[in-house]
Amino acid sequence: MSAPTGSFPCRFCGTYLKHTLVDLGMSPLCESYVAEENYSKMEPFYPLHAFVCHECHLAQLDEFVPAEEIFTEYAYFSSYADSWVEHARRYCHDMKDRFELGSDSQVVEVASNDGYLLQHFVALGIPCYGVEPAENVAQVAIDKGVPTEVAFFGVETAQKLAAQGRQADLILGKNVLAQVPDLNDFVAGLKIMMKPGAVMTIEFPHLLATMEGNQFDQVYHEHYCYFSLIAAERVFAHHGIRLFDIEEVSTHGGSLRIIGRHEEDDTKPVTDRLVAFRNRELAAGLDRMETYASFDEQVRETKRKALEYLIAAARAGKQIAAYGAPGKGNTFLNYCGIKTDLISYTVDRNPYKQGRYLPGSRIPIHHPDRIAETKPDVIVILPWNFRDEIAEQLAYTAEWGAELVVFVPEATVLAPQEARARA
Question: Is-contact 12 53, C-beta < 8 A?
Answer without folding.
Answer: yes
